[in-house]
Amino acid sequence: MHINGLCFNLEVEMPAADLIPVMDPPPGERFVRYVGDRIRFVLRDSEGRVLPDGWEGRLRTTIGRATQLRKEIIMAHSRGVSPGGIAWRDIPMRRRADHWEVELWLTEPGFFKAKAYVIDPRGWQHWPEGPDVGISVHPNEYRTANTIYCAFPRLFGPKKQLMFAKPDPLDKQIDELEKQGYTVIPPSGKLRELKAYLGHIITTLGCRILHLLPITPTPTTYARFGRFGSPYASIDLVGIDPSLIEFDRRTTGVDQFMELAGEVHARGGRLFLDLAINHTGWESTLMRDHPEWFQRTSEGTFKSPGAWGVIWEDLVELKHDNVALWDELVEVFLTWCRRGVDGFRCDAGYKVPVNAWQYIIACVQEEFPNTVFLLEGLGGPWETTELLLTEGGMQWAYSELFQNYSGPQVAWYLDYALRQSQRVGVYVHYAETHDNNRLALGGKQWSLLRVRLCGLTSVGGAFGFTCGVEWLAKEKIDVHDMTGLAWGNPDNIVAELAALNRLLSEHPCFFDGAELVRLSPHDSPVYILRRVSADRQHCVLVVVNTDVDHEHTITLDQEKIREGWLPNVELLGQPLPSLKVDGGRIVITVPPGWAGCLSNQPLSNISCGDEYRRKRAVSAWALSCAASIFGPENVHVDDPFALCDLVDHQPAAFLSALTALKGPVDLGALANIMQKFRSLESYPSVVVWQVRDTNRVLMVPVGFWLMIEDTTPFRVTLDSTVFEHPIHLESVRTRAGFICSVVAPGVPARIRLLLERYESDVKKKEAEVLVVDPVLALPTVYTKLDPDSLVLLTNGRGGMSRMRVDLGRVLSKYDCVLGANFSGLYPTDPHIICSRLRAWVNADGFLSQLSIHNLIDFRPGPPAVWRFIANAGDGRRVEVQLIASMIPET
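Request: output the structure for the sequence above.
Response:
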């Protein structure tokens, strides 16, 4: 080899048949999983040969490093530091005859990457061709029953029962006043009025997620469009529109919002908030303080955003090229999370750069890791949606099923959406949004067809509809005005929606991990989806005739459904369509506009949603605790339900066993150690806080588990100066009660504990936890002195001296210089011989009382030693030492 006139002789010895690695899953693949799931990686030779000696398989991954991954993102964007790869690590793979393998439990939400490779005996690395595998891990709480009720709070006011609220009888008078420069804004619905209907939304309909359209202040006198102004033209991203607040001398608007959030949580629901960070209204606080953060046209005017050829003139578009803006938006999201919001609908989120979302979501999930971000990407490229759901850190995105109607359209779009829901993030089927015409304009049957189509083809039950759909409201929602909800309309679909939501919530074929396969031809007007539960025990057929005018017949091979499977019940309570079995084929004649779910057994026989979610929550909690100590690669548990059974009755013993365990986690070792703690053979490394501890300071040794236990569901916030940010936890329901846990910090600390309990109403408690280090000796000298601190001296036979550090101070009937026990056989009530000691010093005629005011230090002893400084005049001082001790019984 010749380089610039220099000659090199390079000899590289290559083996004749180097191993060419192939990986399963293939490089570049994407997966959606949940906290408490696991993923398996296999690496083998491309030709299937036996593995050569001396070769090692490794997995390079960010799994198990969510905190480091977020910090890497934050540092890269906020400090201009290139990502240093601090979240990446290598995990050894187990060697088998013809492959290497490793199985990892997923115990943290986030988007993680992984790729396996081999190292030969020379130390050279051999990688499979292709990019990293990506795994989007969603919070365990969102496995199932993700039914969404979209509420526009303004509409829950005096006109909600109207089918049509426009035109208003007062429109002419109001128009006349506004021509003269007056501003007239009619009454709005209130947050408390919406709260009054949570029983209808969550209990009756069975919707678990309440999605609020924006509640921030809207324009009133300046750049207001429409009678009310649009909630999307926010003038303060953390404010609450005063029109939504009920006048109350005891509460603020934030208080009333938190009342709503607390009630949603008390009913087992989740609260999502619509938040637009692509734009604000004119003269918003952000625009006033930072006009440089907004886009301008070439003429120098502020730019308004738009989509579908429409420009929204009441909005001003933000310019996301400044991390300072991102920091401002991070605080906006965190503020709402601290008020009780569980997730966000990100309006026009595709218009915000991916790196901005990466930074914002990483910052938010540092404090609230279970926050869900729902992308409204309608009008944007599908590739952008896929990127935001993976690299961007989001979890959910709007589906476009609502604008696909014919059989071929539905089949084509669902093929895409269902595939992506299992790869990049869940596509949520909104049957109707606030931007669309009302379903009821097409009639009751059309409404039922569309909501059933969206619900029955959803992933994890992630489907939604807008307030009023259940009442067959016909007036299109106008975000600038007031429209009717037809609330209480006797002709409604409340019962049908409740039945649909109950099916999605309770049937295993609608849980996470279900297999979804289209059986109908792509051009058929009848759409048929086979759903098989993750455990392969149950199967249903979703049947939808997209033609509202004609019945259609479709023939299916029975073996493609399931061997021996024959439907005999429709799970939404409808009569079965015409069914015939003919030589291994099932012939179904579907009525016009019919949508249903066919099964071979009724829902009552297999309803298991609540218990499934409970066991999954317990196992996810246990796996997360184990992985936090040993790492996910050292948690060798085959069955999460068996783990749940092990810890269900004794969660505290489980935590103690984790601390005592020396090697990898497996059920056998855990069970043996837990038995020792149950039989009190070992001292538990867990301190349990209960509501009865509210009025006392609970002490926890450093590094011990702090477990919070209650008889009702709760959420808790732990805050301390030693934490980077507050820790927010939600209880899981075990057989022993509702619990959550955290490892106490490794240094002494005071922790403020804020508990929100969900009983018949929401109750809040506040307490203090003191983290102490039992290894460190108590200080021998105190220079920062609390005058109320106690000195306790004893003599071994019940006598005592109980004095305050502030000499002569008495705060209790038990305070004394000398308390005697007159019985030499057993303790009795002490007899106070001397209750108070007060002393003065005379230094050259200058009298000084010995008290906390001239105490320079104190040693608790025994003996206890006070050191005072007394004034001797002319700038002179004298030191006085007072020593107190009890003579022990001899």
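Confidence is low (pLDDT under 50) at residues 1-16.
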